[in-house]
Write a structure and sequence with these properties.
The complex is a heterodimer of chains A (654) and B (154). Chain A has 654 residues and is α+β, with helices and mostly antiparallel strands. Chain A contains 21 helices and ten strands. Among the domains of chain A are: 167 residues, no CATH class; 134 residues, no CATH class; 98 residues, no CATH class. The chains are: A alpha+beta (654), B mainly alpha (154).
Amino acid sequence: MLASTGVSGTLGRAFLLVGFIGAIFGAFAAFTGARRNDQQVIRLIPRFAVLTFAASMGAFAAMEYAMITRDFSLAYVQKVGSWSTPALYNFAAVWSALEGSILMWVLVLAGYTLAVAYWVRKRMHDLIASWAMGVMFVVSAFFFLVSFFPANPFAAGAPGVLDGPGPNPLLQNHILVMFHPPILYLGYVGVTVPFAFAIAALITGRVDEGWLVATRRWSLFSWGFLTFGIALGSWWSYEVLGWSGVWAWDPVENASLLPWITGTAYIHSVLVQERRGMLRVWNISLLVATFSLTILGTFLTRSGVLNSVHAFSESGIGSWFLGLFAVVLVVSIGLIGWRGDRLRSPGVIDSPLSREAAFLANNVLFAVFAFVVLLGTVFPLIVEALQNRQIAVGAPFFDRLSTPIGLALLTLMAIAPVLPWRKATTETLRDRLFWPAWCGLGALILSLALGAYGLAPLLTFALGGVSAGAALRQVFLATRRQGWRGLVGRANGGMIVHLGVILIAVALGASNSFSKSQELSLVQNVEAQFAGHTFELRDVIEVRDDRSISVKALVLVDGRKIYAPAITKFTRIGMNVGTPSVRTSLTTDIYLTLEPPVRQDANEARIKVFIKPMITWLWIGTALMAVGTALAAFPGRRRKPTEPTSAPVEVGRS
Amino acid sequence: MKTRRSVWLAMFLLAGVLLVFGANRGGGPKTQQERIDSLTSNLACPTCSGESVFESRAVAAEAIRSEVARQVAAGLRTDEEILGFIEQRFGGQVLLVPRADGLDSLVWALPVAVAVFSLFMLFSAFAKWRDNRPSAPSNDDELIVARALDERES
């Protein structure tokens, strides 16, 4: 078998094997070292981390080399490689199908393992670090094994193949394929780190807040990348797919959203534990849920039981992932049960009108949200299993249920930031929410003046206004008190993230509710009008290269600039791909697509026009979330443990 | 404080009135294309499960889209009737939104049940915590404090 592949195939598989063995030995060293508290064995751990990372780099490089040299002895290169793919997309072709994306998972996971080993290098004698490293190694070993057996990217292909189709045309159409998958994986795989520390804390029985504080930045880091990766995916969808939307509730999108939801719940509720020592079981459960949802999501979307745009071909990895999912759940629940007595929380929540209570409510909402997304994603499977009949659960279902959840979250975002810890009075609330409420009223009046209608979008704008006011109030007070330091730290950085979320919520509300669309049959040099804009077809041209034929309609919009929506036929695959052309501005996007059938020699073209308000604010909001996450990770002013946790009681006010 | 309370009251009233007004005003007539878009968003593309007819560029989706467009252009049927017609013609799996009967209704009922249940749990947790608030110090507690104070003084 090995003999029939080229040098990169043999090397790649050898690297995977070395990586697997390194991970097994690493896990062994970590676990025995930690169990016997044997410092000599523990000191070996970082070497195994280096070894597994080097092996994963080697395997990935071998795959890239095979792809770049078009080594068609490999089945994978036959599937996604082609001489006609441009270099950049050819580089990205490595992760354009199942086997390669698992290989990337291996690389990212081994990278995280090494990074954690470096991070704890001076504290390796601390048993919690050794146990966590052991968990990282076990998960790594699993992925090396998956890549070695069921999802082998280095399998030999049919002999005599000299060229291939190249990656899916949709994946060689936009530069974002270079960034969206790696960044998403940095988030998706990164949740393994806090999970590993949670398991280590359970094993050592040190379930106090120390390990949480220590891994806070890792959680934040992977959450930030998950957020950013999801947003990049939305952007790609908008720029490439031609239906003018950013989110389709497709199973793979849901698979990335689920850990994001539980992860978001975690980074909120963990604050309660840090501050008050409460919710220990809940926080560990959230970490376990987040990690196991990444595994479950991979099972659902990569095993062929569910289909989606992202789904690669069916493969045998399903049972592997289902097995890992089961093991993770059984082990975690077993450990939580075993440590139940130590996990009992010392504190109580004093009042429903307190910050910790608001965090709890936030968690309940996120849990319901995760349940809705999971239910909608697997419901077709349930129906098929019980009644042997096929149904589909699509965007309308998710939209209808996520709207009230989103509005409830916005309401909470408006109130929670002004709540003190422990206990607030309605007077405090009335006092602190005064200006935020004005912001909300202002937003409502403004959106009505701009012509908005409908209860859900108006509530979104109004609540968005209050939440933005509450977030700005916190930032304002913090910067007035501490200067630039008022922008960093989790509370203040978190408020910047909130502002980004609010922008996204408002942009989604506006673009989902107030989009206009029309199909125009344009005749050359005759102006057509829609929604106050003019469209004039200037020409229909054809562009050929060695992989595709594009027909472009040159459309003059508002007499100013020419936009060129196109339909590209990828000749080798025989697939037509539409490419939209978008005029972007801060207020409104004009989104043009060319509708089939097209004829290059015709002097007419059918153009579909979408007028979509506020889309740009989705990307601005995302950028703000990224900035806020970075600020939150930055160490803020440390509160001395002796300082009171909440504001002094105000006396003499009524 | 009195004035601030009345400002709040006025603000709530005004917001309520504005919301009612805004919720009831329409956004003008839909274009034919918008009607087609919203109808096709509720239909599943038969060959590419996971996408709606509105999103998909597949041939089968194109066929359904043009059928919907024909029906809308004819202007004889309501949205419901068009969806029913498409469902009849292309088979039962074409609807993207589960119906609210039989087993399928669970997909609507379960989230509501879970939401109600978790809210109930949340409030009962608050209630429990409020009851559990540490009561007055016991005699033993007083004794410990007294002993500690004695030690400090001596």
